[in-house]
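Subgroup meeting minutes
Present: P.N., E.W., G.H.
Scribe: E.W.

1. P.N. recapped why we're keeping a running log of single-chain structure predictions: easier to compare across weeks, and new members can see raw inputs and outputs side by side.
2. G.H. added today's entry (161 aa).
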Amino acid sequence: MAQTHKGAKTVDPTDLNSPTWKEYDAKMSALHARAQNVLRNEYAREQKDECLNLQSEAEKRDCLVHEALLTQNNYEVYAKALAALLRVRQPIVDPLEPMPPDRGAKFEKAERAWIIYRNTTCSAMSDAYWGGSIQGQIETACLQDITRKHMDELEALYKDK
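Output recorded in log:
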């Protein structure tokens, strides 16, 4: 039997100016803005390509590692904002309505699986360069590229949520 909101405080669905609805809207707007800000930051960094004109292999390697870490950090902040956004529940209109599933938990489970996929894919792909000095750079570039593509994918999936 599905759990309901029985006994919970309800709100009038037509009174969008009520404090409860305003609080809900403010929370959703803040989380959405945080996610969008991180995404814009990552898009700007991708366009800039800080490592493009470096001369030495050591400089390129260090730059690539640094940039990939920034991308990973942006991904983590973005994913956390999306998970939080998915956890925000609308104000209760009908106390007998079933409780919605925890979409944030499902999202986090999917992201953990995606990280395993990404890491395994890039490790397997870079194995073609096994033993070479470029293997690490290939794997790092792969991780950054797939992470950025996944952020695009998440934006397409959740932009209106």
